[in-house]
Specification:
Layout: E1 3-8, H1 15-21, E2 23-26, E3 29-32, E4 35-38, H2 45-53, E5 60-62, H3 66-76, E6 82-87, H4 95-103, E7 110-115, H5 120-135, H6 140-151, E8 155-159, H7 163-168, H8 174-182, E9 186-192, E10 195-202, H9 205-222, E11 226-232, H10 236-249, E12 253-259, H11 262-268, E13 273-279
Parallel strand pairs: 1-2, 1-6, 6-7, 11-12
Antiparallel strand pairs: 3-4, 3-5, 8-9, 8-13, 9-10, 11-13
Length: 281
């Protein structure tokens, strides 16, 4: 029994990673002044940030059409018996529900959907784990059970450099954005009950990153081994330097570097940094 693994573009797996693990990707889109682009297909992360910097209109994001899922699942039915489709949190996008609907519309293949309740690199960790287990011959039930087990230790925090993006995207009131800007507040965000919520407000970015590190340190003490990913919004050098510092301090944590692409970057803004981790299974 062959199991296909599908995720969406907000997992921000590189083309090399998708090829290595045989993960199929369905893209979300970002709408800019000069047109709509499928992220990871028609526009790169760096191209997106360059374009947005010179635009007056705030970008908008679009989930994949249900028909796109149906098309992909029908194609996969030629070679696979089952699909495990892993998507960004249903609390911030209708992408997961689109996969559920499409799964009910196809014949010849059974679609199992997984709400990651998160996004970006942590979402990608679920997809990679599922792909590894599928390659090793695990059943759908074993894979889905492992993904749920991962969810119990999955955590992620994001430090936003500029509150303007959250405010313009409807994630923050104008008054809160103004006050935050005057006080140089750097909010730490996290996922709670499938939604992006404020965790703490810190006066400087340096202190905010230190606070996120404290949260990682707590988990590193509780678990023998962790997987962690530093995520950057078009500030790779800063992200890589932070990852290097963390790796020196936490030898039981396996670190990697990822990025906020166009869809998530629309709401977080350039120069944001994130850190996600999970117990290594």
């Amino acid at each position: 029994m062959r199991i296909a693994i599908v995720t969406d573009s907000t997992a921000y797996l590189t083309p090399e990673e998708r090829a290595r693990y045989n993960i199929h990707m369905i893209p979300l889109s970002v709408n800019l002044e000069d047109g709509s682009y499928e992220e990871e297909v028609e526009i790169t992360s760096s191209e997106f940030y360059d374009k947005v910097r010179n635009q007056k209109q705030f970008p908008k994001t679009t989930q994949p059409a249900v028909g796109k899922f149906v098309e992909l699942f029908n194609e996969l039915s030629k070679d696979y018996d089952d699909v495990i489709s892993i998507h960004l949190s249903s609390g911030i996008s209708g992408t997961f529900q689109g996969a559920v609907q499409a799964g009910q519309m196809v014949d010849g293949i059974t679609v199992y959907t997984f709400d990651s309740e998160i996004s970006c690199a942590p979402q990608g960790l679920y997809a990679i784990k599922a792909a590894e287990m599928s390659k090793q011959g695990a059943s759908v039930e074993q894979i889905m059970s492992t993904l749920e087990e991962m969810k119990s230790t999955m955590d992620a925090y994001f430090v936003v450099d500029d509150l303007t993006h959250l405010q313009r995207g409807g994630r923050l009131s104008s008054a809160a954005a103004l006050v935050g800007g005057l006080l140089q507040v750097k909010p730490i965000l996290t996922f709670d009950n499938k939604a992006i919520v404020p965790f703490e407000k810190i006066r400087t970015k340096k202190k905010a990153l230190r606070r996120v590190e404290e949260l990682l340190a707590k988990s590193a003490q509780e678990h023998e081994r962790l997987q962690a990913t530093v995520i950057h919004a078009n500030c790779e050098e800063e992200g890589r330097e932070w990852m290097k510092q963390l790796a020196e301090s936490y030898p039981n944590v396996e670190f990697s570097l990822s990025y906020f692409g166009p869809v998530i970057g629309t709401h977080l803004g350039e120069a944001s940094l994130g850190l996600g981790w999970v117990k290594k299974i």
